[in-house]
Design a protein that fits this description.
heterotrimer, A mainly alpha (394), B alpha/beta (458), C alpha+beta (473), B: 2 domains, 36% helix, globular, C: ABC transporter involved in vitamin B12 uptake, BtuC, 4-stranded antiparallel beta sheet, 55% helix
Chain lengths: 394, 458, 473
């Protein structure tokens, strides 16, 4: 008997999983039996679309983890900062030249000094810095209100790069070669500082960010109503346009990163860096530059997510808590997996919505279901759904 | 600047009855007690602490703004009975540990001087209830929970005094309103779609359900919860509607009511379902955030939302208290989102604190002789029109919260600035400074002040 | 860190290598420090000596620091010594706190029974959440414990709402230590209420009431407050006494709060108060801050000492080998899974004790006290203090709490005054409310850059340098 079990371990395990899945499906199916088809379809759509936003947030966390092994607790606050910067450029008719110039100059300075401050001594680099700053400033200020999308994107881009590089330079770089715990804790400290900076610059009042507003009607884009399926679903289901946009953006970012990590040398270098920073350095990889790029990219991803979230609800400090809700998604997908980030986000989105559909008066959807699913998946697949299997040796 | 553009426009709207803007600043409106004791050379500290950087910061910061303005105002007039006014405050970031340590620091650093403490959140009130009683410190709070004001049994008045009615009483009052308007609500069923914290779920207690049931208003037993970070709450709203609700009641702030309203519009149910809420939904921020989505009639989604309004609102410019605060608000160049409940109520709280202090000083003869117990006995015998009519503070007969309330509706101003708009054509649209247009939120009271039902401790 | 001795001094036996107090001076300093800690409240403003040397704030602060030292030391056993990340420590504290509170309120446990019972309960639930550590490692495990951080408060909030009060605060009686010394016999009547002081016990002689006449009325004998409402279980503890035959002989009440109450029979919803023969006795109550201090601080010291010793045992060394390399540990014959579970159990027991102390110190519980940010904060305390060092927990908690409760409040008024003048173009309210996060985050950043391995590491380096003086290397 025991020999049989031992020999067919794999098959038996899968059989067990299959039984568990069938039981779960039966249980949920029973619970859902009383609901109208339209409700179930709506829940699925909402979950999928909300999951897209989660996926985008998770992607930012995964990118940093993939390149440096650090779990970034400051991601939520990077979202807030990015969203707020966007707001400053988007909703103000006259952008102050001094502000835009300062932001551009600081960003260019940070970019040019990524490797060493001494680089600035070269005249060529100085010229690039000045030229880049001028160009960025122009992008942020030239033209009237019609070009506000351009202004806002340029401003957010510069702001995100500045945030990412500054975080990396002043807090993560000094910890190269130190225990990972310390770097993780450092991101918590960074979160606090970003929190304070946001309060100083933008206050705490919830702001209106009209990115999903049709300028002609001064109203948000009308949701798509699935009238064609009204009879089939016994009711109406709707698709919210702003969430679709978020979802598409998440999808694009996801494809971009897959290609980036697979086909570019920088992507490969990032993966090498995450394995062992000191080893990577010793084979000639410029760990500082790679870490800097990673943080800048993650900050930009966070900004986009912040803008989407802020546009869908309202821009407040509470956005930072979205990152907390995404933690199970990151883990579910696997800490190093780009695919996993999106898949995890969507799964958690759907699980939350179905939990809410079945029982919202006990917060099953937000406080129990995602974590129960997470526990289950981790016990079955300890490295997440798409995470790297680690081979350990002594 | 964008902010000032909006602000001026708002002042113009409500300034239909405010010609005094260009004139001299008006006198202090409240009918305060005369000072019988000269306090020259002394300092009256207003102590307060709470969440200024945490999850509720968006609603609490105007408290500090108003206190700063009020302190500057009084000191500019030579102080209170000659005493200089000052504020001592700390930020707890919404953490209980921090609130406890702030309280410990205040009590040990100011000892006898600390007789009156202003708190923001009912969480802090619950945490400190016993300690305040032990240390004999009176506390002022805008709206406390049952547990903080009346203890676990709901019958033991403590040392905390609230400006607003208990949330559960507000809900009971709303049920009264619904029951009294059968032409508007022929077959009323109320479903809660609300935040899951202690504030969000007040009113979901069985006592409230029973009371409303007795009035013929059904309340669904299962509240639907959503979080401030949720982007999509269609599921919760649909759950409530599938449960039979035709009125959705919410205890949430800022974007919370706006989110529910836009879900209703998305579902095409804006006509069938009425949205209502606690006094915090009748706020400027809600009115500003709730206009991303327009209803089919062209007005913002939250237009027509009902809510409690247990005090005078910014738009009631015939009220001297409101006139006065509006003037101060403009004189201090505050921004539009700060023109909210917190700023208004804090001026009232300062007035009430000062009145209680003056009355107590008059009785005890000096500021040093004032103790928490003395202030408490003053408060318990108080029946005072705050700021000359912002609201009534009456804490006789063991009451710790306000007893009067009224129902109001959130509307948007019309082009002639004389009343609410009926459609997009006669609605006033002002430039938001970035190519967009803004509707101007208005709050219109629907009823007069009436007694709220007492639902605690049942 | 290996022990470094001055040149020429060697450890010649294993026992010597394992010594906690390596020199007599070590021992002296340690005992002196502990003594100073114990004497401190005597010099406080409300202390019995009336010396007013130390602000009361610090008595409370040290007590609260001590509670968190216990919790963080538990985390240290798990994270620092066994290398298993945990983000659910606050949830385990919640079990200890709510467990003990419910035992005291509903089951009539005294503090002394509730403390070990709730610690054990927490340990068992800790074991449950330690099970995934069989397969899950590293940061994934942190997230499995994150699940505990959400599932446990959820369970306390909803399924157990009848016991915990859900989102409402739960009051907890103050710990009382016996024995009860009788000091008065009274007769109560309708109009003479029982006047309780904290720690009082009233024994109501039911036989003298000839209660047999009222059938089935015993369970409905309650204490009521002047408003005629039943006194909540948190304020007064009621015990029914029975004789050998199972007849009720009396009911005793122990008050944890001062108050005025009446004994009443509640039947058919109406309340009747009545006269009875009562005897009154008094026990020591731990209601005051100083009393709680003397309960908490020695317990914290004891538990620190215990943890230090656990690490010196076979199990403790197994912890360390699992942390350093679990595969190697397995090859050495250590049962890695059992070792991890032991660490989870111990860690949860520490959290449970800390939670129980917190409940009885605060006298009021709320689920907000055990949110994720508290878990993260405790992890921060541990890493700042030095994970895997015996004194790491103490250093970390003290550093963070001093930063939050002494340094920042000291700097704050000054900065709140100065900064708006330096930056007149920014709203002063924005600045003042941003001071706390910026100072806290900034201090952490500077500290982590300067000392990434924690204060305890610096302390060890300092001790070595001191021992080796004047020769540095």
């Amino acid at each position: 008997m025991s020999e049989f079990i031992y020999r067919n371990k794999q098959q038996l395990t899968w059989a067990l999983y299959a039984v568990a899945t069938v039981l779960l499906v039966l249980f949920i199916g029973d619970q859902l039996a009383g609901k109208k088809a339209a409700r179930i379809a709506q829940t699925l759509i909402s979950g999928l679309l909300v999951g897209g936003v989660y996926g985008l947030v998770a992607l930012g966390i995964v990118v940093i983890n993939k390149a440096s092994g650090v779990f970034n607790f400051a991601h939520g606050w990077m979202m807030v900062v990015g969203g707020m910067i966007f707001w400053s450029f988007f909703t103000v008719s006259e952008i102050s030249l001094a502000g835009a110039g300062l932001l551009s100059a600081a960003t260019m300075l940070m970019i040019m000094t990524t490797v060493s401050y001494r680089d600035l001594l070269k005249q060529r680099n100085l010229a690039i810095t000045a030229g880049g700053a001028l160009a960025l400033t122009a992008l942020m200020t030239v033209g009237g209100i019609e070009l506000r999308w351009l202004h806002a994107l340029a401003g957010t881009f510069a702001g995100a790069i500045l945030t990412g590089l500054a975080v990396e330079r002043f807090t993560i770089r000094p910890l190269i070669g130190q225990p990972l715990f310390t770097a993780v804790l450092m991101t918590l400290a960074v979160a606090e500082v970003l929190h304070g900076v946001t309060q100083i610059a933008w206050g705490t009042v919830e702001l209106n960010l009209p990115v999903f507003v049709n300028p002609q009607t001064n109203s948000r884009f009308k949701p798509i109503r699935l009238e064609a399926f009204r009879e089939a679903l016994d009711g109406i289901a709707i698709i919210r346009v702003e969430l679709v946009i978020a979802f598409v953006l998440a999808l694009l970012a996801f494809i971009g990163f897959i290609l980036f990590f697979r086909y570019t040398s920088v992507g490969l270098a990032m993966r090498a860096t995450s394995e062992d920073q000191q080893l990577a350095q010793s084979v000639g990889l410029r760990v500082r530059v790679i870490l800097a790029i990673t943080w800048a990219v993650a900050a930009f991803l966070a900004s986009i997510a912040g803008v989407l979230q802020g546009g869908a609800v309202g821009l407040s400090l509470n956005i930072s808590f979205v990152a907390l809700r995404v933690f199970p998604a990151v883990l579910l997908g696997g800490l190093e997996s780009i695919t996993g980030a999106l898949a995890g986000g969507i799964i958690i989105g759907i699980v939350e919505q179905f939990g809410t559909l079945l029982n919202s008066s006990e917060q099953v959807g937000t406080n129990l279901a995602p974590y129960a699913v997470l526990m289950l998946v981790l016990v079955i697949r300890p490295d997440g759904l798409f995470g790297q299997k680690r081979i350990e040796r002594i | 600047m964008k902010k000032h553009g909006i602000l001026l426009a708002l002042l113009l709207v409500i300034g239909g009855a405010l010609p005094s803007l260009a004139q001299d600043m008006m006198d202090y409106p409240a009918d305060m007690s005369e000072c019988e004791v000269d306090l020259s050379g002394e300092t009256i500290n207003i102590f307060h602490f709470g969440d200024l950087s945490g999850p509720y910061a968006f609603i609490t910061q105007p408290i500090v703004s108003a206190l700063t303005d009020a302190v500057a105002y009084w000191n500019g007039r030579g102080g209170v009975c000659g005493a200089e006014l000052a504020q001592v405050y700390e930020d707890t970031g919404g953490s209980r540990e921090a609130a406890q340590s702030a309280y410990d620091r205040f009590t040990s650093a100011y000892g006898d001087e600390l007789d009156l403490l202003l708190l923001y959140s009912s969480d802090d009130g619950e945490l400190l209830r016993e300690q305040l009683a032990e240390d004999e410190i009176v506390s002022f709070i805008s709206a406390g929970s049952i547990a903080s004001l009346y203890g676990e049994d709901g019958q033991t008045p403590g040392w905390l005094f609230a400006s607003n009615p208990l949330y559960i009483n507000q809900f009971g009052f709303f049920c009264q309103f619904v029951a009294a308007s059968p032409e508007l609500f022929p077959d009323p069923v109320i479903g809660f779609v609300t935040w899951p914290n202690a504030f969000g779920r007040s009113g979901t207690e069985p006592a409230a359900r029973e009371y409303c049931g007795g009035l013929g208003v059904e309340v669904l037993a299962e509240p639907q919860f959503f979080l401030p970070t949720d982007t999509d709450i269609l599921t919760q709203v649909q759950n409530a509607i599938d449960g039979g609700a035709n009125i959705i009641y919410t205890n949430s702030l800022a974007s919370g009511p706006a989110l529910i309203a836009s879900a209703l519009v998305d579902l095409g149910l804006e006509e069938e379902i009425t949205l209502a809420g606690v006094n915090w939904v009748m706020d400027t921020t809600v009115g500003l955030l709730g206009q991303r989505v327009l209803k089919s009639n062209g007005l913002p989604a939250v237009d027509g939302m009902l809510g409690s309004m247990p005090f005078r609102w910014w738009t009631e410019q015939d009220n001297p208290a409101v006139q006065f605060v509006t003037q101060q608000f403009a004189a201090n160049n505050r921004s539009l989102p700060e023109q909210n409940i917190a700023y208004l109520l804090t001026w009232g709280a300062v007035d009430s604190i000062l009145e209680a202090t003056i009355r107590t000083v008059n009785r005890t003869g000096s500021l040093e002789a004032v103790t928490g117990a003395e202030i408490k006995s003053t408060m318990q015998s108080m029946d005072y029109a705050v700021l000359g009519g912002l609201m009534q503070h009456r804490y006789e007969d063991g009451m710790r919260d306000a007893t009067m309330n009224r129902i109001a509706v959130l509307k948007y101003a019309n082009t002639t600035m004389t009343g609410p708009a009926t459609g997009p054509d006669d609605a006033l649209l002002i430039d938001d400074g970035a190519g967009g247009k803004l509707f101007l939120p208005l709050v219109v009271p629907l009823s007069d002040f009436m007694e709220v039902p007492q639902l605690r401790g049942q | 860190m290996a022990n470094i001795n001055p040149a020429g001094v060697f450890d010649t036996t294993y026992e010597e290598d394992m010594l906690i107090d390596r020199t007599r001076r070590d021992k002296l300093w340690k005992n002196l420090a502990f003594l100073a800690l114990l004497l401190l409240p005597l010099f406080s403003v409300s202390g019995p000596l009336g010396l007013k040397l130390i602000s009361d704030q610090y008595v409370g602060l040290i007590a609260r620091v001590s509670i968190f030292v216990i919790a963080v030391q538990g985390l240290n056993l798990l994270v620092g010594y066994t290398g298993q990340m945990s983000l659910g420590h606050a949830a385990f504290m919640a079990i200890g706190a709510y467990g003990s509170a419910i035992m005291a309120r509903e089951l009539g446990f005294s503090f002394w029974a509730a403390l070990p019972a709730s610690a054990l309960l927490t340990g068992l639930i800790g074991l449950l959440f330690g099970l995934p550590s069989l397969r899950v490692k590293g940061f994934y495990l942190a997230m499995a414990t994150l699940a505990a951080q959400f599932i446990i408060p959820w369970a306390l909030r909803y399924p157990l709402e009848d016991l915990t009060g859900g989102t409402r605060p739960l009051s907890v009686p103050a710990p009382i230590i016996g024995p009860f010394l009788p000091y008065a016999d009274d007769a109560i009547s309708d109009d003479a209420p029982l006047i309780f002081e904290a720690g009082d016990r009233y024994f109501v002689d039911v036989i003298s009431l000839r209660f047999a006449q009222i059938e089935g009325a015993y369970p409905a004998i309650e204490l009521v407050n002047p408003g005629g409402l039943v006194v909540p279980a948190g304020d007064v503890n009621m015990t029914i006494h029975e004789d050998a035959e199972g007849n009720t002989t009396g009911i005793s009440y122990i008050a944890s709060k001062a108050g005025e109450y009446r004994v009443a029979v509640i039947a058919d919803g109406s309340t009747t108060s009545f006269a009875a023969q009562v005897s009154r006795s008094k026990a020591l109550s731990f209601a005051s801050d100083i009393a709680m201090y003397y309960l908490i601080v020695p317990l914290a010291a004891l538990l620190m000492f215990l943890a230090r010793n656990i690490i010196r045992t076979r199990t403790g060394r197994a912890f360390i080998s699992v942390r350093d390399n679990d595969l190697a540990a397995e090859l050495l014959g250590i049962n890695v899974f059992i070792t991890k579970l032991r660490a989870f159990f111990l860690s949860a027991v520490y959290a449970g004790i800390a939670g129980c102390l917190l409940a009885f110190e605060r006298n009021s519980l709320s689920l907000d006290m055990f949110q994720l940010d508290v878990s993260i904060e405790m992890l921060a305390m541990l890493i700042i203090g030095g994970a895997g060092f015996p004194l790491g927990a103490m250093f970390g908690v003290t550093f963070i709490r001093l930063l939050q409760e002494a340094a920042i409040p000291m700097l704050r008024p000054w900065l709140a005054d100065l900064l708006p003048r330096v930056f007149p173009f920014i709203d002063a309210v924005n600045i003042t409310s941003a001071i706390n996060p910026i100072l806290f985050g900034g201090a952490l950043i500077i500290f982590l850059v300067l000392e990434p391995r924690g204060i305890a590491h610096r302390w060890e380096v300092f001790k070595v340098a001191w021992k080796l003086r004047p020769y540095s290397y």
